[in-house]
């Protein structure tokens, strides 16, 4: 991975692409690196945040977050509880819109399109950004219906049986459930439920997969299965994962962003560098367990 | 206080006084039992007056003790010790048989005396056909998008129920070109026999329900077999009914409403996966014992209790003498009122609940509505009666005391309760599931339709049934809207005058006040009213239990 700091000036809104072209997939100059995190990667940027601030009522949860998340890799966000890493994740697919008291300021580009533009429909956005939650939350429907839920609500056509099989295979669940596709998703074990949720999230083929501490409610065996799965998925999807488990971030991620209390992004770089030679003393203290 | 010896070892921990706590505990127990015991004593008193258990021959009791009580207790105890799950299933099965027999009485009343069989058949087909077609359309959901499907479904229903151009054309003065399906069926030259039409309507409905139930346990083929078997059983009952002296129509109704669903439940609990035949053995002992006992007392000539609640009481109208007075028109009136109330309050109440829980912004208006719905739930029923009188009768010019006016008034009365309980059910859907749905890119409507409502439905249904239980016992609103005290015929349209069970009981106790009515008709009426109420509540309880087990 290239480590050079390009230190370019931000060009501001002038550099943002034509806002009406939602389908535009061409890389634009929003991928320029950001001085304070000092990182840029040799892959194309998918998600690009610029000065994101989030308030819940009067409490500021995120302060001036700017970062570029490269495609087809695993980006981990670590930090102590309440540091805003989940909040940032929810900014990417605008799930914060569902919280009345939440207020988001700043720009967040997905493939060059600012998702906080007025013409962006958050529902349409979420159809392109899959999400897996902390607690496994399959619907009380059959396994098949869980996987096809996204396709159905999006009126997507296709051979559903094939998509179900394909998604469950990618989620490493097919062998375990192929004979009970019509049974309730709630009858599975916790780890299986979480993999079902992953299958459900990837069935409509999103561009980005957000994972909010996907393994924190699972036992070690299920956790390691989910971790293997995430590494697999990163070959096809851009995975952004929030975790409070340092070892997990070190094991599975390509890039790591360290958030610290107060909602600031302290350092964002290659995982190896973050864990071996962080630039910030606070990050080093946090990683080595001196606080947090 | 710990007492410590010189060496530092503890010899004892002493005692802490609990006198006050114990007194408090028994006071609480007394408070708990006070109301229940009072009501229990009253009910025993009323039941004694109505059923008069002391008038029976001792031999009658002896026969039932030997045939029913002793074997049931013995088998029940054994089964319960071996497999308490099977015992519960057996008890539930017997309860289901009793309740479903009561319901079959209600259904029989509807299809025999209220709706002519041909009309019922026409509407059943006229609704079933578009429903079937729209289910097929929904199956194509990934090819055809929502708006054309909605349009096609609406058109299908309109054509089937009204034809072309239908009431819209009628309003514009265009003559009817294409008759509706419902109209076409009613004008067929050859009319099938009554029981066949009823078998098609009631038996078809119950076969479809049983089929869906069996398909839920097994697979599609099982469901298809179960539905076919259920429908065949109904037809056979219709053909054999006259031979056993029951009449074809009652045989069809009882089979379709009581025996077929109970049979399906028995099949699942007894033979399907995780079932145990032990429960069936217990249920069979109870039912068999009751039958054997009934046959035996008949053969031996022992007289049962000379109960005022008898077949005559249930099937005849009011009369000048207490001995001949019956509750039939009032029972039918109550059933029709409940149907109207359910049809009005369910969509309104659930709609309001969904809006308040899922859509309403948190602002002053919402909070105002919130507080006032709770207040409305506490408004006395007589005030709702006045509202019904003022709005429906005086202002809208409906005639007083009809099924429609009574139903609408009672629907207003229970609307706040339906809203509150539905909101409770909707709120209990985990927010995780909503988040999951929104995270998949579902709109609010898709989330409500696919996730929230299916999950909250059993709770909503339970709340609505309990609210209906409140409505069925209301007297004051019916008096206020001018429902007649005595009706001699069943109401057969929404515009007919209606009486209801509590109103009839009130009339007997007040207007026809004589010793005879006090001691005979009133307690019998109360017992029937309570039995209907209990049946409705038991359905609600079963639904709630099922909900809790799966959820």
Summarize the structure in words.
- The complex is a heterodimer of chains A (292) and B (551).
- By secondary structure, chain A is an alpha/beta fold.
- Chain A has a domain at 138-204.
- Chain A has helices at 85-92, 122-126, 143-153, 160-170, 174-177, 190-202, 220-233, 246-252, 271-276, 281-287, and strands at residues 45-56, 59-70, 74-78, 102-110, 113-114, 129-132, 208-212, 238-242, 255-260, 264-270.
- In chain A, the strands form 2 sheets. In chain A, strands 6-7-8-3-9-10 form a 6-stranded mixed sheet, with helices on both faces. A 4-stranded antiparallel sheet of chain A has the order 2-1-4-5, covered by helices on one side.
- In chain A, helix 3 (143-153) packs parallel to helix 6, helix 4 (160-170) packs across helix 6 (190-202) and helix 6 (190-202) runs parallel beside helix 7.
- The longest helix of chain A is centred in the last third of the chain and has 14 residues, at 220-233.
- The model of chain A is unreliable at 1-38 (pLDDT under 50).
- Chain B is an all-alpha fold.
- In chain B, a hairpin with a 5-residue loop joins strand 1 (3-4) and strand 2.
- The mean pLDDT of chain B is 86.
- Chain A binds chain B through residues 93, 95, 98, 100, 123-128, 130-131, 133, 135, 137-140, 149-158, 160, 182, 197, 200-201, 204, and chain B through 141-143, 145-146, 219, 361-362, 430, 432-433, 435-443, 446, 450-451, 454-455, 550-551.
Can you say what the CATH homologous superfamily of the domain at 328-550 in chain B is?
Answer: MetI-like
- How many helices of chain A in DSSP terms? 10
Q: Count of helices of chain B? A: 21
The residue ranges of chain A in which pLDDT falls below 50 over 5 or more consecutive positions are 1-38
Query: How many beta strands in the DSSP annotation of chain B?
Result: 2
Largest sheet of chain B: 2 strands, antiparallel
Silhouette of chain B: globular
Give the averaged pLDDT of chain A, no decimals. Answer: 82
The outline of chain A comes out as globular
User: What do the pLDDT scores of chain B average to?
Assistant: 86
The beta-strand count of chain A equals 10
Task: Please give the CATH architecture of the domain at 328-550 in chain B.
Answer: Orthogonal Bundle
- What is the topology, as strand order, of the major beta sheet of chain B? 1-2
């Amino acid at each position: 991975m290239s480590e050079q700091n390009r230190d370019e000036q931000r060009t501001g809104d002038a550099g943002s692409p034509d806002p009406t072209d939602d389908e535009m997939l061409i890389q634009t100059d929003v991928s320029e690196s950001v001085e304070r995190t000092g990182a840029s990667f040799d892959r194309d940027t998918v998600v690009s945040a610029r000065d994101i601030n989030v308030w819940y009522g009067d409490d500021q949860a995120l302060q001036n977050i700017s970062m570029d998340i490269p495609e087809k890799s695993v980006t981990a966000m670590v930090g102590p509880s309440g540091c805003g890493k989940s909040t940032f994740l929810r900014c990417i697919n605008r799930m914060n819109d569902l919280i009345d008291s939440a207020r988001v300021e700043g720009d967040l580009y997905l493939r060059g399109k600012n998702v906080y533009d007025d013409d962006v429909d958050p529902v349409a956005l979420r159809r392109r950004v899959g999400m897996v939650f902390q607690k496994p939350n399959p619907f009380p429907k059959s396994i098949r219906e869980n996987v096809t839920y996204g396709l159905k609500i999006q009126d997507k056509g296709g051979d559903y049986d094939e998509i179900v099989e394909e998604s469950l295979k990618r989620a490493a669940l097919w062998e375990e459930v192929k004979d009970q596709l019509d049974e309730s998703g709630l009858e599975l074990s916790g780890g299986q439920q979480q993999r079902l949720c992953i299958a459900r999230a990837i069935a409509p083929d999103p561009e980005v997969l957000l994972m909010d501490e996907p393994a924190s409610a699972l036992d070690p065996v299920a956790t390691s299965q989910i971790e293997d799965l995430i590494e697999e998925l990163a070959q096809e999807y851009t995975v952004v994962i929030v975790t409070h488990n340092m070892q997990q971030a070190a094991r599975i991620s390509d890039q790591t962003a360290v958030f610290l209390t107060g909602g600031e992004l302290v350092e964002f770089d290659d995982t190896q560098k973050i864990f071996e030679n962080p630039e910030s003393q606070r990050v080093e203290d946090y990683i080595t367990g001196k606080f947090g | 206080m710990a007492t410590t010896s010189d060496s530092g070892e503890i010899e004892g921990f002493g005692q802490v006084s609990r006198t006050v706590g114990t007194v408090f505990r028994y006071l609480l127990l007394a408070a708990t039992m006070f109301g229940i015991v009072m009501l229990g004593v009253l009910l025993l008193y009323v039941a004694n007056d109505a059923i008069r258990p002391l008038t029976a021959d001792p031999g009658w009791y002896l026969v039932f003790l030997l045939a029913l009580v002793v074997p049931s207790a013995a088998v029940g105890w054994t089964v319960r010790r071996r497999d308490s799950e099977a015992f519960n299933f057996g008890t539930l099965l017997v309860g289901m048989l009793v309740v479903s027999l009561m319901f079959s009485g209600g259904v029989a009343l509807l299809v025999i005396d209220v709706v002519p069989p041909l009309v019922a058949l026409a509407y059943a087909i006229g609704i079933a056909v578009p429903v079937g077609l729209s289910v097929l359309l929904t199956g194509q959901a990934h090819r055809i998008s929502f708006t054309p499907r909605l349009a096609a479904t609406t058109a299908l229903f309109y054509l089937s129920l009204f034809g072309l151009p239908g009431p819209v054309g009628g309003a514009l003065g265009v003559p009817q070109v294409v008759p509706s399906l419902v109209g076409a069926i009613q004008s067929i030259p050859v009319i099938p026999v009554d029981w066949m039409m009823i078998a098609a309507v009631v038996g078809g409905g119950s076969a479809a329900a049983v089929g869906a139930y069996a398909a839920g346990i097994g697979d599609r083929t099982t469901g298809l077999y179960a539905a076919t078997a259920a429908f065949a059983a109904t037809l056979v009952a219709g053909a054999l009914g006259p031979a056993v002296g029951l009449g074809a129509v009652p045989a069809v109704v009882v089979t379709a409403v009581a025996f077929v669903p109970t049979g399906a439940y028995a099949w699942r609990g007894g033979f399907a996966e995780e079932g145990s035949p032990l429960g069936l053995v217990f249920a069979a002992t109870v039912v068999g014992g009751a039958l054997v006992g009934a046959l035996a007392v008949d053969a031996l000539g022992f007289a049962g209790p000379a109960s005022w609640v008898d077949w005559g009481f249930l099937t005849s109208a009011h009369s000048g003498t207490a001995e001949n007075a019956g509750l039939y028109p009032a029972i039918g009136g109550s059933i029709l009122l409940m149907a109207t109330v359910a049809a009005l309050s369910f969509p309104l109440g659930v709609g309001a609940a969904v809006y308040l829980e899922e859509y309403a912004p948190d602002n002053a208006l919402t909070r105002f509505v919130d507080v006032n719905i709770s207040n409305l739930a506490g408004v006395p029923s007589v005030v709702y009666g006045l509202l019904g009188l003022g709005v429906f009768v005086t202002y809208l010019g409906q005639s007083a005391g009809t099924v429609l006016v009574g139903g609408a008034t009672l629907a207003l009365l229970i609307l706040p309760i339906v809203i509150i309980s539905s909101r409770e059910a909707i709120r209990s859907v985990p927010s995780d599931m909503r988040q999951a749905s929104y995270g998949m890119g579902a709109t609010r409507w898709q989330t409500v339709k696919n996730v929230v409502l299916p999950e909250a439905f059993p709770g909503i249904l339970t709340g609505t049934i309990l609210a209906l239980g409140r409505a069925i016992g209301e007297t004051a609103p019916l008096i206020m809207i001018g429902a007649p005290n005595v009706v001699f015929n069943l109401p057969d349209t929404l515009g007919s005058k209606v009486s209801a069970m509590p109103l009839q009981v009130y009339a007997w106790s007040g207007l026809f006040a004589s010793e005879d009515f006090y001691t005979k008709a009133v307690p019998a009426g109360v017992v029937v009213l309570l039995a209907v109420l209990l049946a409705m509540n038991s359905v609600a309880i079963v639904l709630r239990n099922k909900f809790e087990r799966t959820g």
